[in-house]
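Hi, here's the filled form for the chain we discussed.

Project: internal
Contact: R.S.
Residues: 145
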Amino acid sequence: MNRVQRIAWFNIVVLALCIVVSCFTVAWLASRKGFPFALHGFGMLGLCVLHLPGPLLFRQKRPGGRVAFDERDAQIAQRASSCRDTVSVAVLLLFFLCAWLLLGLRGSVPVVALGVLLAAAYVLSTLAESATTLILYARGIADAE
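And the returned structure, exactly as it came back:
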């Protein structure tokens, strides 16, 4: 397993744990304080930034005569980043379309919903990038070219 795959697995594990912790926090706060207060549990999604030091944790060792990052790796990284961009645009468009359909032209979107939207778009796009990276490496050289 190379460095990019380790970073992708690290991202998936950290983001999945943050989503689970956030959902449990919302459920716990809903049972204790009621539902409007329970939305503060989404603040636990702030733990998702723990995936950012992933590249620092998995530093590239100097290979002895081996290629560390070749054309195939660059193509996989390019496809994964295009998948990330596609997912983030799709999430934003879906949210705006749903807000327009539900609230109409005169409705207003709460500020809390905008924060949740940005967090959801970020988390889903990072998960999509990591999953795409792992899927393309699992397929092998034939499908990546």
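Let me know if anything looks off before we file it.
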